[in-house]
Amino acid sequence: MTDRWQIHRHLAETTDQRLTLVRSTPQRILLCGADADTSRRLLAARYPHAEFAEYDSRPEFLQAAAAERKTGFWQKLTGKTVPQTCQSPTDPLPQAAADMLWANLGLITAAELPPVFQNWANALKTDGLLFFTHFGQDTLAELTSRLKNHGIHCHAPTLIDMHDIGDMLAGNGFYDPVTDTAKLELHYKKADTFRQDMDTLGLSQAITFDRPEAAQACIDRIFAEEGGLTVTLETVYGHAVKALKLPQGENLVQFYPRG
């Protein structure tokens, strides 16, 4: 593994293929999670008239995306820039401002998922579209199992089963949630490359250990004694639609013609 953004690009391209089924054309898209301009570039090719805004809690990720755009053809051709905001996933987004919210690994920095989903729902217009990627509960299972055998326990509260994610979406402002998973197997020859990817993917933040120094020492031993490390990422793909939100005490009444 040498390309820092390779996994982000794979996830974004896979999700972008699903947009062929989307009939509406979003005019305003919020990017929640910077990925070196990978997602914005794909979406701009599909929706050339869309306006974008980008949010991330990691300033270095925002800087990397801005740097890619500065040297890219799109910005030179259009003269447009993408407004960026450095904030946590639960800090309020503009209310009912977007037709689509796209989050390529944007959940990975969250402490818990439901408040983020509620924030995203608030930012979308009614029937606005949510597309996101995340990692599931079996991510790095081989490694965490080996560490557990050495008395080192991991904590990953946001890496959960895809069905639980679907339930959270349904309970926090969305309808018709759809989630599915896939597996990616990665082989590393150098510990430094492995750690760099874990930082870029956000997994070094999402997975913590009760004995962090012992965990890092154990990982170093694996590389030294076995010449490498193979890990599996459980990728989660999801999409949903923003539900209509009525004032408290009101209900939607629909009338259908006879026959």
UniProtKB/TrEMBL annotation:
<dbReference type="GO" id="GO:0032259">
    <property type="term" value="P:methylation"/>
</dbReference>
<dbReference type="InterPro" id="IPR050602">
    <property type="entry name" value="Malonyl-ACP_OMT"/>
</dbReference>
<dbReference type="GO" id="GO:0008168">
    <property type="term" value="F:methyltransferase activity"/>
</dbReference>
<keyword id="KW-0808">Transferase</keyword>
<keyword id="KW-0489">Methyltransferase</keyword>
<dbReference type="InterPro" id="IPR029063">
    <property type="entry name" value="SAM-dependent_MTases_sf"/>
</dbReference>
<protein>
    <submittedName>
        <fullName>Methyltransferase</fullName>
    </submittedName>
</protein>
